[in-house]
Protein backbone atom coordinates (compact mmCIF):
# COMPACT_ATOMS: atom_id res chain seq x y z
CA UNK A 1 0.00 0.00 0.00
CA UNK A 2 3.07 2.25 0.01
CA UNK A 3 2.24 4.05 -3.23
CA UNK A 4 -1.37 4.56 -2.17
CA UNK A 5 -0.28 6.03 1.16
CA UNK A 6 2.16 8.38 -0.54
CA UNK A 7 -0.65 9.56 -2.79
CA UNK A 8 -0.47 11.50 -6.00
CA UNK A 9 1.02 15.00 -6.17
CA UNK A 10 -2.56 16.01 -6.96
CA UNK A 11 -3.43 14.95 -3.42
CA UNK A 12 -1.34 17.84 -2.07
CA UNK A 13 -2.50 20.75 -4.18
CA UNK A 14 -5.62 22.48 -5.39
CA UNK A 15 -5.07 23.76 -8.91
CA UNK A 16 -6.63 27.10 -9.75
CA UNK A 17 -6.61 28.58 -13.22
CA UNK A 18 -7.35 31.92 -14.81
CA UNK A 19 -5.69 35.27 -14.21
CA UNK A 20 -7.88 36.52 -11.34
CA UNK A 21 -7.91 33.30 -9.23
CA UNK A 22 -4.13 32.93 -9.65
CA UNK A 23 -3.50 36.54 -8.62
CA UNK A 24 -5.82 36.15 -5.63
CA UNK A 25 -3.96 33.02 -4.51
CA UNK A 26 -0.59 34.72 -4.89
CA UNK A 27 -1.79 37.73 -2.93
CA UNK A 28 -3.28 35.77 -0.01
CA UNK A 29 -0.79 35.66 2.89
CA UNK A 30 -2.58 32.63 4.38
CA UNK A 31 -1.99 30.49 1.28
CA UNK A 32 1.19 28.88 0.01
CA UNK A 33 1.44 28.60 -3.75
CA UNK A 34 3.78 25.83 -4.89
CA UNK A 35 4.21 27.03 -8.46
CA UNK A 36 2.64 28.98 -11.28
CA UNK A 37 2.55 27.65 -14.83
CA UNK A 38 2.23 30.25 -17.56
CA UNK A 39 1.58 29.46 -21.21
CA UNK A 40 4.49 30.40 -23.47
CA UNK A 41 1.97 32.29 -25.60
CA UNK A 42 1.00 34.52 -22.65
CA UNK A 43 2.45 37.99 -23.18
CA UNK A 44 1.60 41.58 -22.35
CA UNK A 45 0.43 43.34 -19.18
CA UNK A 46 -1.57 40.40 -17.80
CA UNK A 47 1.39 38.00 -17.99
CA UNK A 48 3.70 40.64 -16.54
CA UNK A 49 1.33 41.23 -13.63
CA UNK A 50 1.29 37.52 -12.78
CA UNK A 51 5.08 37.31 -12.98
CA UNK A 52 5.45 40.32 -10.64
CA UNK A 53 2.97 38.84 -8.16
CA UNK A 54 4.75 35.48 -8.22
CA UNK A 55 8.13 37.12 -7.67
CA UNK A 56 6.76 39.12 -4.75
CA UNK A 57 5.42 35.91 -3.21
CA UNK A 58 8.65 34.01 -3.88
CA UNK A 59 6.90 31.55 -6.18
CA UNK A 60 8.51 29.91 -9.18
CA UNK A 61 6.94 30.55 -12.60
CA UNK A 62 7.26 27.77 -15.16
CA UNK A 63 6.57 28.21 -18.85
CA UNK A 64 4.69 25.54 -20.79
CA UNK A 65 2.84 25.24 -24.05
CA UNK A 66 -0.70 26.57 -24.16
CA UNK A 67 -1.87 23.01 -24.80
CA UNK A 68 -0.05 21.74 -21.72
CA UNK A 69 -1.68 24.42 -19.55
CA UNK A 70 -5.11 23.41 -20.87
CA UNK A 71 -4.41 19.76 -20.07
CA UNK A 72 -3.19 20.54 -16.55
CA UNK A 73 -6.10 22.87 -15.85
CA UNK A 74 -8.60 20.37 -17.22
CA UNK A 75 -10.52 23.25 -18.72
CA UNK A 76 -9.84 24.35 -22.26
CA UNK A 77 -11.93 27.52 -22.25
CA UNK A 78 -11.29 29.35 -19.01
CA UNK A 79 -7.66 28.80 -18.04
CA UNK A 80 -6.50 32.06 -19.73
CA UNK A 81 -3.07 30.51 -20.14
CA UNK A 82 -2.18 30.36 -16.46
CA UNK A 83 -2.65 28.08 -13.47
CA UNK A 84 -1.27 27.76 -9.97
CA UNK A 85 -0.84 24.80 -7.63
CA UNK A 86 -1.92 25.91 -4.16
CA UNK A 87 -0.85 23.83 -1.19
CA UNK A 88 -3.85 22.30 0.61
CA UNK A 89 -2.34 21.34 3.98
CA UNK A 90 -5.18 19.05 5.08
CA UNK A 91 -5.65 17.26 1.76
CA UNK A 92 -4.21 13.77 1.50
CA UNK A 93 -4.90 10.28 0.23
CA UNK A 94 -7.75 8.37 1.87
CA UNK A 95 -5.42 5.38 2.30
CA UNK A 96 -3.07 7.50 4.40
CA UNK A 97 -5.91 8.70 6.65
CA UNK A 98 -7.17 5.16 7.20
CA UNK A 99 -3.64 4.01 8.07
CA UNK A 100 -3.32 6.55 10.89
CA UNK A 101 -2.93 5.25 14.42
CA UNK A 102 -6.25 6.99 15.14
CA UNK A 103 -8.23 7.06 11.87
CA UNK A 104 -11.04 9.61 11.45
CA UNK A 105 -14.17 8.61 13.34
CA UNK A 106 -16.71 10.29 11.04
CA UNK A 107 -16.36 10.80 7.30
CA UNK A 108 -18.47 12.06 4.41
CA UNK A 109 -18.18 10.30 1.04
CA UNK A 110 -19.26 12.18 -2.08
CA UNK A 111 -20.72 9.92 -4.78
CA UNK A 112 -21.61 11.42 -8.16
CA UNK A 113 -21.99 15.03 -7.01
CA UNK A 114 -21.14 16.90 -10.20
CA UNK A 115 -22.18 20.48 -9.43
CA UNK A 116 -19.13 22.47 -8.25
CA UNK A 117 -21.29 24.73 -6.09
CA UNK A 118 -22.56 21.73 -4.12
CA UNK A 119 -19.08 20.31 -3.60
CA UNK A 120 -17.81 23.71 -2.46
CA UNK A 121 -20.66 24.25 -0.01
CA UNK A 122 -20.26 20.74 1.41
CA UNK A 123 -16.55 21.35 2.00
CA UNK A 124 -17.34 24.65 3.74
CA UNK A 125 -20.03 23.08 5.94
CA UNK A 126 -17.99 20.02 6.87
CA UNK A 127 -14.99 22.18 7.76
CA UNK A 128 -17.17 24.48 9.86
CA UNK A 129 -18.59 21.44 11.67
CA UNK A 130 -15.11 20.15 12.45
CA UNK A 131 -15.50 16.89 10.58
CA UNK A 132 -12.24 15.04 10.12
CA UNK A 133 -12.63 14.08 6.48
CA UNK A 134 -14.59 14.56 3.28
CA UNK A 135 -13.80 11.94 0.65
CA UNK A 136 -13.76 13.55 -2.79
CA UNK A 137 -13.02 10.90 -5.46
CA UNK A 138 -11.06 11.96 -8.52
CA UNK A 139 -13.66 10.36 -10.82
CA UNK A 140 -17.41 10.91 -10.80
CA UNK A 141 -17.35 14.09 -8.71
CA UNK A 142 -16.83 17.71 -9.75
CA UNK A 143 -13.15 18.58 -10.05
CA UNK A 144 -11.69 20.70 -7.26
CA UNK A 145 -11.41 23.80 -9.42
CA UNK A 146 -11.94 27.56 -8.94
CA UNK A 147 -15.73 27.12 -9.00
CA UNK A 148 -15.51 24.78 -6.01
CA UNK A 149 -13.10 27.12 -4.25
CA UNK A 150 -15.41 30.09 -4.89
CA UNK A 151 -18.49 28.22 -3.65
CA UNK A 152 -16.64 27.29 -0.48
CA UNK A 153 -15.67 30.96 0.03
CA UNK A 154 -12.04 29.86 -0.01
CA UNK A 155 -12.47 27.22 2.70
CA UNK A 156 -11.70 24.43 0.19
CA UNK A 157 -8.01 25.26 0.49
CA UNK A 158 -7.99 24.18 4.14
CA UNK A 159 -10.77 21.58 4.10
CA UNK A 160 -9.97 18.02 5.28
CA UNK A 161 -10.21 16.54 1.77
CA UNK A 162 -9.38 12.86 1.31
CA UNK A 163 -8.68 11.61 -2.22
CA UNK A 164 -9.11 8.26 -3.93
CA UNK A 165 -9.97 7.02 -7.40
CA UNK A 166 -13.73 6.45 -7.19
CA UNK A 167 -16.58 6.33 -4.69
CA UNK A 168 -16.75 2.55 -5.03
CA UNK A 169 -13.03 2.28 -4.27
CA UNK A 170 -13.53 4.47 -1.21
CA UNK A 171 -16.48 2.41 -0.01
CA UNK A 172 -14.48 -0.80 -0.31
CA UNK A 173 -11.56 0.70 1.61
CA UNK A 174 -13.89 1.96 4.34
CA UNK A 175 -15.63 -1.38 4.80
CA UNK A 176 -12.27 -3.14 4.93
CA UNK A 177 -11.12 -0.66 7.58
CA UNK A 178 -14.15 -1.44 9.76
CA UNK A 179 -16.40 1.51 8.94
CA UNK A 180 -20.18 1.27 8.73
CA UNK A 181 -21.60 3.01 5.67
CA UNK A 182 -24.76 5.07 6.04
CA UNK A 183 -26.56 6.63 3.08
CA UNK A 184 -29.29 9.23 2.95
CA UNK A 185 -32.52 8.07 1.36
CA UNK A 186 -35.90 9.79 1.47
CA UNK A 187 -37.82 6.55 2.06
CA UNK A 188 -35.55 5.17 4.81
CA UNK A 189 -37.40 4.37 8.02
CA UNK A 190 -34.59 5.34 10.41
CA UNK A 191 -34.05 9.04 11.09
CA UNK A 192 -30.54 10.48 10.95
CA UNK A 193 -31.36 11.95 14.37
CA UNK A 194 -32.06 8.53 15.90
CA UNK A 195 -29.66 6.12 14.20
CA UNK A 196 -27.07 4.46 16.41
CA UNK A 197 -23.58 5.15 15.15
CA UNK A 198 -20.69 2.79 15.67
CA UNK A 199 -17.23 4.11 16.48
CA UNK A 200 -16.30 4.41 12.80
CA UNK A 201 -19.00 5.71 10.48
CA UNK A 202 -19.03 7.12 6.95
CA UNK A 203 -21.98 8.88 5.34
CA UNK A 204 -22.55 8.66 1.60
CA UNK A 205 -23.98 11.72 -0.12
CA UNK A 206 -25.37 10.86 -3.55
CA UNK A 207 -25.49 12.85 -6.77
CA UNK A 208 -27.97 15.57 -7.63
CA UNK A 209 -30.08 13.46 -10.02
CA UNK A 210 -29.27 9.78 -9.49
CA UNK A 211 -28.57 9.76 -5.75
CA UNK A 212 -26.24 7.09 -4.41
CA UNK A 213 -24.93 4.94 -7.26
CA UNK A 214 -25.53 1.21 -7.40
CA UNK A 215 -21.84 0.38 -7.01
CA UNK A 216 -21.74 2.11 -3.63
CA UNK A 217 -25.30 1.20 -2.59
CA UNK A 218 -24.28 -2.46 -2.56
CA UNK A 219 -21.96 -1.75 0.35
CA UNK A 220 -24.26 0.50 2.42
CA UNK A 221 -24.82 -0.77 5.96
CA UNK A 222 -27.98 1.22 6.64
CA UNK A 223 -30.13 3.87 4.93
CA UNK A 224 -31.25 6.86 6.96
CA UNK A 225 -33.54 9.79 6.24
CA UNK A 226 -33.93 13.42 7.27
CA UNK A 227 -37.47 13.87 8.63
CA UNK A 228 -39.38 16.42 6.56
CA UNK A 229 -42.90 17.06 7.89
CA UNK A 230 -43.47 19.67 5.20
CA UNK A 231 -44.60 18.92 1.66
CA UNK A 232 -41.11 18.70 0.12
CA UNK A 233 -39.72 15.54 -1.43
CA UNK A 234 -36.02 16.10 -0.83
CA UNK A 235 -33.31 18.59 0.09
CA UNK A 236 -30.45 19.81 -2.05
CA UNK A 237 -27.44 17.59 -1.32
CA UNK A 238 -25.46 20.45 0.24
CA UNK A 239 -28.39 21.25 2.55
CA UNK A 240 -28.64 17.59 3.51
CA UNK A 241 -24.90 17.57 4.22
CA UNK A 242 -25.37 20.57 6.52
CA UNK A 243 -28.13 18.83 8.50
CA UNK A 244 -25.99 15.71 8.83
CA UNK A 245 -22.79 17.56 9.74
CA UNK A 246 -24.37 19.57 12.51
CA UNK A 247 -26.24 16.56 13.86
CA UNK A 248 -22.79 15.08 14.37
CA UNK A 249 -21.77 18.30 16.13
CA UNK A 250 -24.84 18.01 18.37
CA UNK A 251 -23.82 14.48 19.29
CA UNK A 252 -20.31 15.67 20.05
CA UNK A 253 -18.63 13.39 17.53
CA UNK A 254 -16.64 14.37 14.45
TrEMBL record:
Per the database record, which ranges form the RNA 2-O ribose methyltransferase substrate binding domain? 15-92
Give GO MF terms, alphabetically.
Answer: methyltransferase activity
Keyword Transferase on this protein?
A: yes
Q: One GO BP annotation here?
A: methylation
- Indicate yes or no for the key word Chloroplast: no
* Top-level division of the source organism's lineage: Bacteria
Task: Identify the InterPro entries for this entry.
Answer: Alpha/beta_knot_MTases (IPR029028), Ribosomal_eL30-like_sf (IPR029064), rRNA_MeTrfase_TrmH (IPR004441), SpoU_MeTrfase (IPR001537), SpoU_subst-bd (IPR013123), tRNA_m1G_MTases_N (IPR029026)
What span is annotated as the signal peptide, if there is one?
none
What's in the keyword line of the UniProt record? Methyltransferase, Transferase
Could you tell me what this protein is called? TrmH family RNA methyltransferase
